[in-house]
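Quick one: structure for this chain?
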Amino acid sequence: MAVDVSTTPAFKVGIPRPLESVVRLTIPIRGYDVAADGQRFLTVRDIERPEPPPAQMIVVQNWVEELKRLVPIR
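Got it. Here's what it folds into:
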């Protein structure tokens, strides 16, 4: 979550909102870190990659007959 904070003239906290750029990882490491100056985040993000085209396609004809041959019903 992210929230705006101001300290002058008095301490004031804004409304919390989701920090959507941080990816939730399923392994036990943080998906983010804070810059040394405390002003920025370094985050792990998903990138959009197009699906590669299939390298080959296998077409099996008469597969039901092949299945019956390999696994006969008793």
